[in-house]
Known about the structure:
Elements: E1 2-8, E2 17-23, E3 30-40, H1 42-48, E4 65-72, E5 84-87, E6 90-92, H2 98-101, E7 113-114, E8 134-138, E9 143-144, H3 151-154, H4 160-170, E10 178-182, H5 186-197, E11 201-206, H6 212-218, E12 222-225, H7 229-234, E13 239-244, H8 253-256, E14 259-267, H9 281-284, E15 289-292, H10 298-311, E16 317-321, H11 325-333, E17 340-344
Parallel strand pairs: 10-11, 10-13, 11-12, 13-14, 14-15, 16-17
Antiparallel strand pairs: 1-2, 3-4, 3-8, 3-17, 4-5, 5-9, 6-7
Helix pairs in contact: 4-5, 4-10
Amino acid sequence: MYTAIGYAAQSATTPLAPVTFQRRSPRPDDVAIEILYCGVCHSDIHQARNEWGIAVYPLMPGHEIVGKVTAVGGAVTRHKVGDLVGVGCMVDSCRHCEACHADLEQYCLEGMTMTYGGADRVDGSITMGGYSDSVVVSERFVLRIPEKLDLASAAPLLCAGITMYSPIKHYGIKAGDKVGVLGMGGLGHMGIKLAKAVGAEVTLFTRSASKAGEARRQGADHVIVSTDDEQMKAAAGHFDFLLDTIPVQHDLNPYLDTLRFDGVHILVGLIEPVDPALHAGKLVMKRRVLAGSLIGGIAETQEVLDFCAEHGITCDIEMLDIRDINEAYSRMIAGDVKYRFVIDMATLKV
């Protein structure tokens, strides 16, 4: 064990504050990492405030981690001291179920171990995330950061990037497909970039016409203002796929109408009950599919890092001093960030 420092919430109603805590010494298959950057995901806020009802305190968020290897266990073969690496939303799984054997560790039948707020499978201790100076993770869940990627901008690819890439790959979205992206936050702007990179014709759905210029700067071909009934009617039966990043309850029915027959509406942002009720006829009468997707497996996450390096894609970020993390949460709730905060961990040591 060794002493680490970071920022954590002690309860759902207290702000994040500096803490010291114990990290485990590396096990034979472990990689010890000095954290250089950590992205700030909206789910960090949900967890810190226990909005999903599963938080365990003290809770140290952060699952978009980029850093440098400082030590490795004796059985490690994939990484060496000095390597630039990343850690995403999970740090372990059962490794033997059908999902794990299919490189879909996020769907582990025994439950993945989350990077923070999870239970370590060896000693039962609560995992602490990337708002810290260091982390120790099994090599199987450590990713290689390609040389071409800017380290800070690469951090959100470990959550936002893979969340959008996984459904694009799974559903075979390709050149010529008509793809609608719902919402343009941290997830949505990555969805636009990745869908364009595979050659799709991309349309942003937004409630605000003022976002049209920014959407096109991100690569969108078209913009539909979802509160404009005429624009929504004109889009009826047009899209092959919808990538829905909206994180709060919203009416799915008008969007389903914009799908062609056999079209697929993929939820990546909403994990609450659908409200208002879904009209099943909108699915049945056109053989449409309503689906969901959760982050991605480890191999697939490495794939999106390599894909983004090859295509020059990174997340648009705003650098953050960790001492301003609580203010950053308030700004995120207000939608005042384009499009992801990334903590410079050098500020933790000042």
